[in-house]
From TrEMBL, chains A, B, C, D:
This is TetR family transcriptional regulator. Gene3D superfamilies: Homeodomain-like, Tetracycline Repressor, domain 2. InterPro entries: Homeodomain-like_sf (IPR009057), HTH-type_TetR-like_transc_reg (IPR050109), HTH_TetR (IPR001647), Tet_transcr_reg_TetR-rel_C_sf (IPR036271), TetR_C (IPR011075). It comes from the Bacteria. The keyword DNA-binding applies. Signal peptide: none annotated. Residues 39-58 bind DNA. Pfam families: TetR_C_11, TetR_N. It comes from Actinomadura hallensis. GO terms for molecular function: DNA-binding transcription factor activity; transcription cis-regulatory region binding. Keywords: DNA-binding, Transcription, Transcription regulation.
DNA sequence: TCATAAACGAGACGGTACGTCTCGTCTTGTG
DNA sequence: CACAAGACGAGACGTACCGTCTCGTTTATGA
């Protein structure tokens, strides 16, 4: 009878309350049990919203994650501006480090990545989210180019990737510890590579 | 009453055949359906071994993956020696690229990583495997140091990480495409950083 | 503050149209899917009336059936008058037979009976309806008594019951086929019993 | 992996205990809540057998009823032999009466009939059961024919139908009360009709 | 004729039961 | 008599329908 998905037509009052409760419960469940432990039933119980309603609005566990990601995406992200490329990249790497290791954020971040690796819907959300972040972070490189720290034509996104990839690699692939030193080293590598003109488009 | 787990006491004849069949089936299932699609039932059916037997010996899906990983770890890995650091790192990055994108290997590699991220047993196997690879790959950096391409004290493992991390990052985190150009760029970044002495221990 | 149920205060125009549409849709759904397949949602969709309205006015699926029965009860019923008891009873049995086997009426009749067996509201409606029919049919027996075909004091209702019960029995209990021969035999039995004075009050 | 339905290959021990528990629970639930109130969940809870197991073995609520019916069919049924047709038919009618009105049996019997009317599986079971009963009861008529109480060629099954149909009719169709008098009258009608030769094949 | 209350349209939610899918454990009957 | 095969327990998934609630919108109807 209805046109689209529930929650899109009358997004006020109860509907909004329900959505908020479920989102919050999703994040909490992810932080506690990780992606594999995220269940619709668990979220429903925790949020006080009925199972059926969660299925109606979020369809499945991945839908929950996708929605939670949109919530996360809405949060502002402070693009650093320290004055030089090294400092900026270091700041970005440290932000990522925090996202991966902070007791509160870490499990959620990991869950997001795992979800994306196993669900197309979650992947879409995560990738959109990250694309936006990458785009924001690119400003750092563009400023560096303007200052003459890096050659024109430098691939800003690639610089950022080099700066943060080793952190993700350690967390998700090799399971090695990550710390500030690791973040700084990765950032430094990226800065050097950018300066050397290795990362031009 | 046996001491250890089944399959450890009489590792000949049928026991060995069963193990081989299950390992092969596991890899095939991983290649076809990925990590999320790996089920004990599926492996049992494909291998012709009974469900119960699989549970007895491998305990759960992650156990299957851990075992399959050991199989993969046994395969020889050709450490490149092209004569200079850039070439060696590029060769390594391209090997990793193949492992991630090859139609046959890709799904299995991805499954291994996902499994490790969600199961302690799989993680142990994968991390041991990668540690060994990293150790082998370190040889190229040590040779570069000996040739004077990089300063003494360069952290060999870190160089390799910088060289391959962007590939994993793209595949597992941002879902961006990976190609030879990406591999080469990542390798070049690592070489530059190593030369610049940013990656000393 | 309304007095009674909706539809009682302003029974004109739209209200009447809604009622008619729902009744018709109910009968059609019953004919198509039977009692077990009758859903408020289905009736609402078919009638073009909104779910909520159906619930408001008819309360639940049984309410729909009860209402549809009242509609059926309003239809005139031709009490036969063939001149003798045998012929009258046979005519009645054949009417019942049609009601049970006719492609259009059969499913609805069966649905009514099943509904009555599972819902007090539907039962009330059906029993009232049948009581009226039984009363009308009793005229046949009374005429027979007046003609001397059956002894005074014959229980008219019981005669009719004996004449039609085997048909219902076959349809609802044993699932055996019913045809004109079965109807005629049942009617004949009732006539014989009535004549023999077995069915006096 | 298995050939047929569960419970057919290893019908001993636990399997048998499970079946017995479920059957008993089914009958109890039917007696308490009737057909409409029979739920797989309820039976599972009452029997102490897990939901999933019930679904595996009985498929759905109708499967439960079909199985319970087979259980009922196994119970011996005392075909009366009073010496004359009237007495025999009266005894049969009274047996049916008990089955319909006894506080313990009544609800179950009604549930069986309702189930049969709404489920092909239950219908098969019930019809097979009743066919067997009808066949047994036919002996009564055959003896009467042998004694000369009824003409040769009398349709034994039809006689029994006439004798019991009014009881079912009252219970399932008109909702009228049934008592011993009603049973006796129905039996008497059948006897008269049989004697009159109305029920020859 | 026109204000007003009745009735309806619409969307969302809580709730019960259904039937399915894996996983992992237990138990039976057979080689 | 061990163990392979069969059956079960456990829990989550996703669906259908029921019935309720809260809004807003239309439309009879009588003053």
């Amino acid at each position: 009878m209805t046109g689209g998905a529930p929650g899109t037509v009358r997004p006020g009052g109860r509907t909004a309350r329900v959505r908020a409760a479920v989102r919050e419960a999703t994040l909490a469940e992810l932080a506690e049990h990780g992606y594999a432990g995220l269940t619709v039933d668990g979220v429903a119980a925790r949020s006080g919203v009925h199972r059926t309603t969660v299925y109606r609005r979020w369809r499945n566990p991945d839908g929950l994650i996708a929605d939670a990601l949109e919530l996360a995406a809405a949060e502002p992200w402070p693009v650093p501006d320290t004055g030089d490329l090294d400092g900026d990249l270091r700041a970005i790497a440290r932000l990522v480090l925090t996202g991966l290791t902070d007791p509160a954020q870490g499990p959620v971040t990991r869950a997001f990545v795992l979800a994306a690796a196993q669900s197309a819907a979650a992947a879409r959300s995560l990738h959109a989210f990250l694309a936006r972040r990458l785009e924001q972070a690119a400003a750092v490189v563009e400023r560096a180019v303007a200052r003459g720290e890096a050659p024109a034509g430098t691939d800003a996104a690639e610089v950022v990737r080099v700066a943060v990839a080793p952190l993700y690699y350690r967390v998700f692939v090799t399971g090695e510890p990550v710390d500030r030193a690791a973040a700084d080293r990765a950032a430094a590598s990226a800065a050097v590579a950018a300066r050397a003109g290795v990362l031009v488009r």
